Amino acid sequence: MSFEHLPDGLGIGVATPRLTWTLPSGAGRQEAYELELRRGGTTHRTGRVDSADHLLAPWPGEPLTSRERAAVRVRVWTPGADEPSAWSEPSAVEAGLLAPADWLAVPVGAGWDEDPEAQRRPARVRRDFRLDRTVAHARLYVTAHGLYEVEINGRRVGDEILAPGWTVYPHRLRYRTHDVTGHLTEGANTVGAWLADGWYRGKYGFDGGTRNIYGTDQSLLAQLEVTYDDGSTLVIATDATWSAAPGPLLTSGLYEGETFDARLHDPDWCTAHRTDPVEWTPVRTGSRDPGTLVAPLGPPVRCTEEITPVAVTPAGEGRYLLDFGQNLVGRLRVTVDGPAGTTITLRHAEVLQDGELATRPLREAYSTDTLVLSGRGPLTWEPRFTLHGFRHAEVTGWPGELTADRVTARVYHTDMRRTGWFECSDPLVNRLHENVVWSMRGNFVDLPTDCPQRDERLGWTGDIQVFAPTASYLYDCVGMLDSWLTDVGLEQFPDGTVPWYVPVIPGEPMWTPIHPGAAWGDVATLTPWTLFRRFGDRELLRRHYPMAKAWVDLVERLAGPTRLWDTGFQLGDWLDPAAPPDDPAAGRTDRHLVATAYFAHSARHLALAAAELAYGADAARYAALADEVADAFRRRYVLPSGRMTGDSATAYALALAFGLLTPQQRGPAGDRLAALVLADDARVSTGFVGTPLICDALTDTGHLDVAYRLLTQTECPSWLYTVTMGATTIWERWDSMRPDGTLNPGGMTSFNHYALGAVADWLHRVVGGITATAPGYRHIAFRPRPGGGISWARTRHETPYGTASLSWELTATGVTARITVPEGCTATAELPGCAAVDLEPGEHVLHTADLTAEAA
User: Fold this and answer.
1) Which among 127, 277, 387, 575 would be 20 to 30 A from 643, CA to CA?
2) Which residues are bridge partners to 192 per DSSP?
3) Known catalytic residue at 317
4) Which DSSP helix (H) or strand (E) runs through 571?
């Protein structure tokens, strides 16, 4: 049993959480279910509910109240069974603080004056208290203006980092609920927190960045609620009774890195037996509207992997170059001993240039961590409040010899559950797929960012719009993206304009003031639809529908009666390889052709969403609008022959993939697209817009062989060119590194940018052969289409209903496929040259030779 889209039910922010369960092995499908709800010493059972639904089923009782805990279990009836299944193990759900009045805490931080325009030394805050009897349970509800890490009695609370994450802080500030029963002891106790600027007041953004975007304070907001064994309670909330002092962090910034002076650190600072080398003074209290405090919709950022260096190269006295063999996002943990005052500097970069760290692509993200030793013995240390994108690191000032066992790269990202896998007989394609996975990991850090290394790291709407189908296959990212889409709606302008990136921060001169832009603003319509189709959450679609509608209505006004969006600033097919390094929008495809195509596509998907939500009038209106825009598109951009006025691969890919051509035009357009690709010797000629679509456009018009030629090309520009150049993540530019090993001279040269990795969705559906044909994969099409010299492929996806998998291989007599259909789902399998066959839940082995013989 799970609740909403959360990994566990502790601190849920929904009074009536929806329930999801998977069926017992061999059940086939569900005919009915019964839920049991235990709360407050009472038990409630629903009785038999005749329903096949076990995804996001409604809450079976009265709404939860703040702090209320309940246990839920389920049993099901399946076809042919005389009795229901056994009861599932009970799963616990506990509400967080659901009402603003539940909050007593106020923000507290440093009581001393600070220069708001400078980089300020972070504070720590704490409070002593006593517990005079046995504790039954305790909860900590906590957030901050800035970033925080909490300790109780010297022990860290939780394992997430960069909490509370980045949301549109004036409207939504996340708090998290922790069970801290085991942290407390009868008698003297201390609760305290490290603080840092983070996104709230640290310098952030490009072109020099902006400080104090949300405020000038750096404050903790925490409420510790203790329940004794006799039922009485004690609340320790942040208020004027807390104290503050400068900590051993001298500086901390998400871009800059962190400086830690171990000489200033008392490891017992948050315990009753501390030595207090610094003076603690009263905190300054602030204010916060508790109505803006919200519970998380997804998991936090955590360490998910540790990597040791594959090479440690001495480069002078006390200086070493490290290679971790993988471009990643995280930070270094070192174990070191040396004299007091020894200063060790850690610098980071994604690639080397002439044997040294290539830091130019980082721009003003200096990515430098500094450790000053205390001389009190060996120390294991890593930064707390920063992250870096890197494969290589330089260590200077190291005392003695640095060996690989003394340094570890710790990988951090939003701790989503992995749900999708793919591999095939081509090792270069496998490495490409791994690069996509690593780029997603590195850029799903509380929100979907464009890049993790330079002075940017923003939630670009266009990047995730094209990548969401891939992302939702690889990871259970629905909770995280639902939260971020909520912020997109909050940042949407009253006229419907969707910002280029969310949350919005200053971006002079190109990005401020904000203009509506195709492909980027269409995240409002297309990404909620993608999440609905992949995860089956109709209410998510409903919540974000007003945002989608406002966007399409805006574009309708901008286009006017002509239905052509042919005015205004557009990014077009961003980073088309033909665009000059200093003008990524100057590609081969007419920017307004792109805009009008997306207008039709978004109107069509808004109509589909309206129909799904039973908004009949809207469904008819926007379907008609989509038809009108498609007609206008054909009149302006398509010749009767099917050739297009903008004779580029992206133009044809858009027209074909978005269904903008007549049946008579599709064949000639597909042929022309294939001819354009082959004329370029199957090198990529598309940017952010065309790249996710081109392989499908070729496949669907009978040119699967050309799509495979495009996939397997190794000359620049191509997906596999980056692999042959040693890439371990997806690059921002097709030639971020030139064939001669030099870096692209453009100011945007990231080596970790997931957008061009959106081809992995085609790998999953066409090469691997798994496609969701009903929301949540309730019905699945298994249709592998071999080619490109690939002789086998294995694809697996953890759907909301369970495991779907397809493993196929070419044999002397045809194709053999091994298929798993999840319990509660149905499927259709279509192997090459064979008619489709229907499949029930379970394991299946199919051979094309057998299917052909049966048909004969």
Assistant:
1) 575
2) 126, 151
3) no
4) none
